[in-house]
Every structure is written in C-alpha cells, then in structure tokens.
Specification:
The chain is an alpha+beta fold and 63 residues long. The protein contains 1 helix and 2 strands, in the order E-E-H. The chain has one domain.
Length: 63
Amino acid sequence: MSRKIHLTNAARRDATVIMGFLKPELPPKMGVPGKPVSFRRYLASADENLHDSLVNKHGEDYA
C-alpha cells in the first residue's frame, strides 16, 4: 500500500511524494531446528515466604 502526497509552495513549485511501507522482517527462530523449545520462570524468595513456612504460619489453604 502506498500513499501519494502532493506538496507545493508559494513560488508554485510542486512535488509528489510517494510513501511506501515495508513488511517487517520475521524474528529469528529460537532453539535448534526439530527440537522443542521450553521456557521456565524462576522466583526468588526469602525463607519466610517459602511454601513450608507459609503453611506453618497460615495453614494449608493460605492462598
């Protein structure tokens, strides 16, 4: 898709500008071809916020 813009000035000089759009490049594929990719998240916590400490403090259904 392209757009045309017509420009002119007081000295009666004019121009037509055409704007075109490029398709973005695809990002690189992650991992090794043919092998599954998995992502994991890790949570840093102090001892008082670990599951066993929270169960002792609030009971099994502390959520």
